[in-house]
Amino acid sequence: MLFSITRFIAGGCLPLLGAFSFCSFLFKNYYIGLTFIIIGVLAYYLVFIKYTNIIINKHITIFKSEFKDEFVRSNFYCDKTYENFMYFDRMNKQICFTDKDANKIVSRLNYDDLFSAKFNSHHYVIMKFKLINQEIKIKFHYFSKDYISLRTRFSRLTTIYE
């Protein structure tokens, strides 16, 4: 939340700084205009590049530790959009996808097939799996309200079989 507010304020201030510097150059106040440009570039770097990377790296670390230790339930998108649930089965080292309506496991992917997992700038975790003849890309929203631990509320899903 703080991250969104900071980016919103900084995003509104950058055009304002640009307008001030343009007006300063228009009225031949070059030093003032140059000062506003430097402040704008510095603000852009600090807020949009540095601060964003700190936030993303923090959540990548959280995701990597939870990927190993937690069960996760989330809406997932796999090539086409399916409204199914995904969770990590730590015991069998698999990622399971369950049908939303029937709560039946529709497919499983092994951890060993995981090619890469990364956190993109739009709060999505993208996981790529390399299988024998295809590559599967899975994307889910990291901060969605469905991102909860299966140990506490959804442990019943671990007893469902194909």
Structure description:
The longest helix is centred in the first third of the chain and has 40 residues, at 30-69. This protein has two domains: 2-66; 71-159, PH-domain like, CATH 2.30.29. It is of the alpha+beta class and 162 residues long. Strands 1, 2, 3, 4, 5, 6, 7 and 8 form an eight-stranded antiparallel beta sheet that branches. Helix 1 runs antiparallel to helix 2. It is built from two helices and eight strands. The chain has helices at 2-26, 30-69; strands at 72-78, 80-89, 94-98, 105-110, 114-119, 124-130, 135-141, 148-149. It is rod-shaped, with a radius of gyration of 22 Å.
SSE topology sketch:
Elements lengths: L1 H25 L3 H40 L2 E7 L1 E10 L4 E5 L6 E6 L3 E6 L4 E7 L4 E7 L6 E2 L13
Antiparallel strand pairs: 1-2, 1-7, 1-8, 2-3, 3-4, 5-6, 6-7
Helix pairs in contact: 1-2
Relevant terms:
2 domains, eight-stranded antiparallel β-sheet, PH-domain like, 31% strand, disordered C terminus, single chain, alpha+beta, 40% helix, 162 residues
